[in-house]
Amino acid sequence: MNKLKWAMLQMVIWVSVSLFSVTVAAEEKPPGEIKFEACSGCHSRPGYANAVPRYQVPKLAGQHAGYLKSSIKAYAKGDRTHATMVGNAVSISDQDIGDIVAYLESFDLVKSNENYSGDPLIGKEKSASCIGCHGEGGDSSDGNFPKLSGQYQSYLIVALQDYKLGKRNNPMMNAMVASLSDDDIENIAAYYASQKKGLGVVER
User: Fold this and answer.
1) Where residue 91 sits, what CATH number does that domain have?
2) How far apart are CA 148 and CA 160, in angstroms?
3) What pLDDT sits at residue 179?
């Protein structure tokens, strides 16, 4: 076999092995990881912020699948409003939702060191009535209620304000936050953001 034919054979073998490796790697990824690519532009960028109103896009790694599924459904029904999220929620299938939320729930909680304003100690006192659903320190064990530990403070503040203003429709939460002042909301959000272990970002 002359050198040219040998070189061509080596090239064919290399390309075949490379394509096989890429195919195998893709097949080994869980479906939720592949489908989450559509979400990664916002939710895989640490500290990435929504423009108006200004808040950091929530961390999702380690969040309960049940809560995430109900959140997506809430966007689809109009109980929660955000143009991008509503657009995604109305066009995604139940199978895709199930795969994505199962993937996100599979992550362990991570060490957290978030910046915050306000007083987390006061926030801890104010959040006493939240423990029944959200758990001690925001580490909920009930899949129907979100974990809050380590979540961005700016996101939590906007979420609580939206419940208070009725922009988020949940009778229990609407009632719980009705009497909270702006300082109360800031301090409660600081308490959950200050937890040393919590939700993470799915970095790509």
Assistant:
1) 1.10.760.10
2) 12
3) 97
For residue 21, the one-letter residue type is S
Spatial CA neighbour of 112 closest among 62, 151, 147:
151
Burial pattern 163-190, b for ≥16 Cβ within 10 A else e, equals bbeeebeeeebeebbeebeeebbbbbbb
Q: How far is CA 113 from the centre of its chain?
A: 17
- On whether residue 3 sits in a domain, the answer given is no
Q: Is residue 93 part of a domain?
A: yes
Confidence tier at 52 by pLDDT (50, 70, 90): confident
Closest CA to 140 of 151, 154, 153: 151
Average pLDDT of the chain, as a whole number: 90
Asked if the structure places residue 193 within a domain, the reply is: yes
Q: Which range marks the domain in which residue 73 is found?
A: 29-198
| 149 in Cβ contact with 199 (< 8 Å) | yes
188 phi-psi bin (left φ>0, alpha ψ -120 to 50, beta other):
alpha
Show the tokens assigned to 94. 């139940």
Q: What is the pLDDT of residues 103-155, one digit of tens each?
A: 999 999 999 999 999 999 999 999 999 999 999 999 999 999 999 999 999 99
Enter the pTM of the model: 0.85
According to DSSP, the β-strands at 197-198 and 110-111 are antiparallel
Both structure tokens of 152: 């961005």
